[in-house]
């Protein structure tokens, strides 16, 4: 099958791999991208990646669990759900000063974004007020801010926007079909509604999902289809590999083939060319070669620092060593340019500028 495009004949797969920004993906199209020969998939993804981003820069976000455990929701993957016994100690909402201290450490270690997560179904008003103050103070330090607090009303999203929040993380997690086997206490529609409130408030959307939960490949296509067919692509798309935690219903699930994970990253990159694609949870169980393939496939963001919310993440030092081996620079915020000049390696060690590169962060 072929299509005419600017006088050139493209096969249907070439057309799918062309990096067009679309919101009408069919499942068959996602399947065709995901299942093409691995080298073709990675070549297409890297090619698209270079049209929008510096291929040798990775954005780094540090996570902090500001309220841990005893969550009323029953997400089958989650060590923080009150429905399962995972031996996690339940904690109250942290104090603002404590959070600011953690954010200062994250900034010192080189993170550009600080993501605060709470094990809530949705925030209570008095708790939201505390989080708003955290957002203001962390932002004042020159860090980008992200929070993930569960479902939000329109008004709550507005308040977060007024406090200066940069990103709200709320994942779709999986396909609409598989979702019912993973979470029963809130619906897929609830999630889409929260994301709409976040978008309406003008906050950047961070939304992705988890693979390796025993889903079919069809469910992975379904997740990507839902994400890419939203009215706007999420500015940040976290792809998590399940961290299987003992005591959760998914504690014993079979480990995912790492090549499948890389295919997922590459397909996300091709379908959402201008979004940051984050290689998220699960890196502790991945070797450095798999992570490197994810970067080649277009992942350009990671969670950085030795802890995710409650589980382990690679040591910051190990990530920096890998970046050095790969000639990757952690992305800097514009206001950090002075620090960048001090730390940038000598000119002869750097890659020449790519003519196709432009900074997609400037477009939103
Ligand atoms: N309670 C809020 C919510 O669910 O919206 C925010 C925190 S929740 C822990 C944020 C996300 O972390 C989940 O949506 C899920 O995608 C991811 N997550 C949680 N446990 C995970 C695990 N064991 N492995 C991989 N990702 C996980
Ligand atoms: C996302 O997509 N992954 C992060 C973040 N958003 C909040 C959370 C990963 C959690 C992994 C399990 C844990 O550490 O509790
Ligand atoms: Fe609660 Fe979020 Fe964990 Fe679900 S993923 S149980 S909502 S903390």
Automatic annotation (TrEMBL):
Pathway: Cofactor biosynthesis; biotin biosynthesis; biotin from 7,8-diaminononanoate: step 2/2
Keywords, comma-separated and alphabetical: 2Fe-2S, 4Fe-4S, Biotin biosynthesis, Iron, Iron-sulfur, Metal-binding, S-adenosyl-L-methionine, Transferase
Cofactor(s) needed: [4Fe-4S] cluster; [2Fe-2S] cluster
Binding site residues for [2Fe-2S] cluster: 115, 146, 206, 278
Domain Radical SAM core: 56-280
Quaternary context: Homodimer.
Official protein name in the record: Biotin synthase
Organism annotation: Kangiella aquimarina
Taxonomic classification: Bacteria, Pseudomonadati, Pseudomonadota, Gammaproteobacteria, Kangiellales
């Amino acid at each position: 099958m072929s299509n005419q495009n600017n006088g050139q004949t493209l096969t249907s797969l070439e057309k799918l791999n062309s990096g067009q920004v679309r919101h009408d993906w069919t499942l068959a199209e996602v399947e065709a991208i995901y299942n093409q020969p691995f080298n073709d998939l990675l070549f297409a993804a890297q090619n698209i990646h270079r049209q929008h981003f510096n291929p040798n820069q990775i954005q780094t976000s540090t996570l902090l669990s500001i309220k841990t455990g005893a969550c009323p929701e029953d997400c089958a993957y989650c060590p923080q759900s009150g429905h399962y016994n995972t031996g996690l100690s339940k904690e109250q909402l942290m104090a603002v000063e404590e959070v600011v201290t953690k954010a200062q450490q994250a900034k010192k270690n080189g993170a550009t974004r600080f993501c605060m997560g709470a094990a809530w179904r949705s925030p209570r008003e008095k708790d939201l007020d505390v989080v708003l103050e955290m957002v203001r103070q962390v932002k004042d330090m020159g860090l980008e801010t992200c929070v993930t607090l569960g479902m939000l009303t329109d008004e709550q999203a507005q308040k977060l926007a007024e406090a200066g929040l940069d990103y709200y993380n709320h994942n779709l997690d999986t396909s609409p079909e598989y979702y019912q086997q993973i979470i029963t206490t809130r619906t897929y529609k609830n999630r889409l509604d929260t994301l709409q409130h976040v978008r309406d408030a003008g906050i950047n959307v961070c939304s992705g999902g988890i693979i390796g939960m025993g889903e079919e490949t069809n469910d992975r296509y379904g997740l990507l289809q839902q994400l890419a067919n939203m009215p706007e692509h999420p500015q940040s798309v976290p792809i998590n590999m399940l961290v299987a935690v003992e005591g959760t219903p998914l504690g014993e699930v079979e480990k995912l083939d790492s090549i499948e994970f890389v295919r997922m990253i590459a397909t996300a990159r091709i379908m959402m060319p201008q979004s940051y694609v984050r290689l998220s949870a699960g890196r502790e169980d991945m070797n450095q070669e798999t992570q490197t393939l994810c970067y080649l496939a277009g992942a350009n963001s990671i969670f950085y620092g030795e802890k995710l919310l409650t589980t382990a993440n690679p040591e910051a030092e190990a990530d920096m060593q890998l970046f050095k081996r790969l000639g990757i620079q952690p992305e800097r915020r514009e206001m950090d340019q002075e620090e960048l000049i001090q730390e940038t390696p000598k000119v002869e060690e750097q890659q020449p500028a790519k003519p196709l590169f432009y900074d997609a962060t400037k477009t939103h």
